[in-house]
Specification:
By secondary structure, this protein is α/β, with parallel strands linked by helices. The relative contact order is 0.08.
Length: 804
Amino acid sequence: RILAKIYKDIFPELSESKQVELENAMLKLRISTIHSFCRLLLKRFSFYNKMDPFFNVINKRENILLSYRAFNSFMNNADPERWRILLKNIKLTSLRKDLFDVLKTHPYATIGVPAGDMTTQIAKLGRDVSEISSRIKRELSMMDFNDLEMITYQILTETPEAINILEDFDEKNNFIFVDEFQDTNLLQWRIISKLVEEWISGYGAKAEAGRPYGVFLVGDRKQSIYKFRGAEGKVFDEAKTTLNAFCTEKKLLKNYRSAPEIINFVNKVFEDNHPWAEEKLSPGIEGMPNNIELNFPEGEDPKFEEYQWVAGKILELINNKALVMDKHTKEYRPIEFHDIAILMRKRVGKKYKLLEKTLKESGIPFVILGGMGFYKEPEIIFLMTLVLAIADPSDKLSLWNLYSSTYRITYDKVIQWRKYLKSKELVDALEIILQELNFWEGISTQQKANIEKFLMIVDEWKGTPLYHVSGNLRAIMSAEEEPKADIFSEHQNAVSVLTVHSAKGLEFPSVFLVNLEDGAADMKKDTILYKKTEGESPYEFILKGEATKEYKDEYKNMIQGEELRVLYVALTRACQYLFISGTGERTKGVWMPLLEKFQTDFPATMPKMVPVKKEQAEQPKQKKTISIKIDHSGLLTSYTEEKQKAEYHYEGTVAGEIAHKLIYELSTGRINSRDNYIQRVDFYLKKSGFDENKKLWDMLVNIYELIDKTPELKKIVEKREDGFSETPFIVKKEGKIYTGFIDRIILDAEESCYIYDYKTEKGDADKFKQQMDIYEEAVRKIFPQRKRVKRYIVFLQNGKIQEI
């Protein structure tokens, strides 16, 4: 983009040879993160600090494990009298938690001073533990990201040789350009300002030689939302003070992303707040299709109603083919699912599950970006249990959990798996075990990514004793909230579901900002409070339990300002369509009172969809579920769900679902014998609450007998290379967009494609013609090279196969 701008606007007459020359010069630009820059500097001048120049930078997970190791070492060697005094006022578990909270509060606690007696004692303890941790890291030639900043700053400010480093930097560099300056913490700015100290003085080698030099800082303090990483908008003020004699300021207020209506709306929302009132945006693009709606339901179940409205509006956008500007071609085209984002302030358990459920039942494809709760995912819980059971023979609980899992694992199996560890690395043994269990079959893309991430974590510990691996897993499970694995979503036609922080830097033609009530100055999880000081140390910090009311109020005012900035980031992610919703008391929080007053000007319209609650009488154990009744205007739906509404029978539905699961497992090779099949029948019936229903048991077992003795049927169901089971599809037919799964597809060598749909009920195959028409349409899209498509209904109770 930079080169294109240079060629077009600055040097339009450049010859081809000059363009090549310019591009070669551009390749000499050194572009890096601040941490990468510090790493290179420390490697180059490692001899000034007696460091190993080949040190490795460790991640957050590894650093936590080293911190635990340092803490345990300190406990084993500390003065007992000191422990006695400390533990007189605080429990050991609370002490350890407070200690690690202080260690993680960088840079506030790192370069700040403690306030309060207990905070001072814990801070001193933290320094002792940090010294042990630093010694361990030095012995292992390791540094974490905080070390990169701290040691760089110390070398530049506290060593006599710093002048040599600064002269070297001055010789090789003329300019520093810092992008996203609002995300810079104070310590990082002080590193940068130290590097340009000679430039600012006006007496350096460059000034004497008359060579150009300068510092460029680009950022938006209104988008400073990484307080938890130490970033703060006030770093602009410190930079202005440092550069005061030389700096000029230019405000870039024209927005080339969003429609004028959205920009005007954002200006109105923040018109009474500093610095927005002084820095109003102006539109850079005119005439874009747009819409803004605010919805605050107040019914019996407002959150349920809110998410239904969100799902309905998404489907309405797709159905109406709302026009969006393609960011690559700059031309208008119909909106697609990947043009839509659902943003939220934070992921809250019940709300989040309900949103996922609503999107699934509405047939809306979606991907979750940056989801938290990695160690709470069922596949990861199983893998943790598996590792602990085979790596730690003393862990009886994990062993019992393994035996109780759906995989019917026996003691002999566990013994066999433990033998693998005698000759293989743990990660290699896990790969084999997962193949033996057919663990990869029938799981989602997100689950596969999570499993791969877990295996990568284990792979980092190659050569580590198994008892250390067990300890490491237990430590990281309890020590941090690990994000789920990222899945490559750029080319998936699906709605993105993410937090506002994850969305920073991104843009979407349509944005849904939900759970507005969560935009509040919440101090519940903050155990360390801090504030800026005017003294020698830039920060002061204190345990929340020791803080005065005035201290807490000052801190709350600070995070209220952060919430305003988070809301600003959320609203400015939208290019054309902005939908805002929330529930709860209007007077609470930061976001809700700010936006509620605009509901009259931007009222919500109800989408063309009607919620239909499924019968609850026959499903007493289930909470409220929804399906979406669609009008005939072409919204996304499911053929089988539409039919079930008219012909719903709970026991029959359960029987059909179990039969399909069993046949799927036969087709994928997971079930490979009659005994295995009967075990799975027992399992599914027990899981569904029908374990004493002999009629259902007989019907399901009879399906296996029928398949086994009917060669034609067995040929369809058995595992084969040219067969596909439970194939997902989305297809448009006769004005509607259908989504679903095709039970079985088989390809042959003669360019034909055979579709099979399994039915547990008896009846005439012709009544399923409409369904098979939809399936055929989908198959022709999936396999366009196939010239012939044949469709069959397979009746599982009598083995009849009928062509349609």
